[in-house]
Amino acid sequence: MEPQYLLFVHPVWQVAATLVGLYAAWLGLKRLRSLHLGHSVSFPRSRHALAGKLALGGIILGSLGGAIMVRWLFRRWVILGAHGWLGLVAVALALFGLITGLILERRPAPRKALPLAHGLINLLVLALCLVQFYFGELLLGALAPDD
Predict the structure, then answer these.
(1) pTM for this one?
(2) Which pLDDT band holds residue 56 (cuts at 50, 70, 90)?
(3) What does the angle CA 90 – CA 106 – CA 92 come to, to the nearest 5 degrees?
(4) What is the C-alpha to C-alpha distance for residues 87 and 77, in angstroms, rounded to an integer?
(5) d(Cα 122, Cα 141) in Å, to the nearest integer?
(6) What is the DSSP string of 102-134?
(7) Using one digit for the tens of pLDDT, what is the confidence trace for 112-136?
């Protein structure tokens, strides 16, 4: 098997993490409705926290895996282009989302600003992931072996 085929592990992993992130966002919308919009809805906190940790951890690990594959196959850490740079931004924001999520999970208290910042940053991470699918597809088209 050609080592370039390993490049497909990264996008499959990232798509899976993004799908879990979309589920966590859907659960988080229930919290937004109850906290900021005054609706009485139950918030499945433990399920949201688990899905969020899996998604953000998956995005961070998947990005690291992509960088390691680029280093192994092309002898550099980052492909200097939109995909590489946006990936670094997404990882930084995902770290913020993960840290704030852990704070909210481990130190529950009546708050409004931190959960809102947490949710907005994580929505931005998901939006960046969706944009990354476009740039990643272009990159795979240029790097993948022809059959």
Answers:
(1) 0.86
(2) very high
(3) 10
(4) 12
(5) 28
(6) HHHHHS----SHHHHHHHHHHHHHHHHHHHHHH
(7) 899 999 999 999 999 999 999 998 8
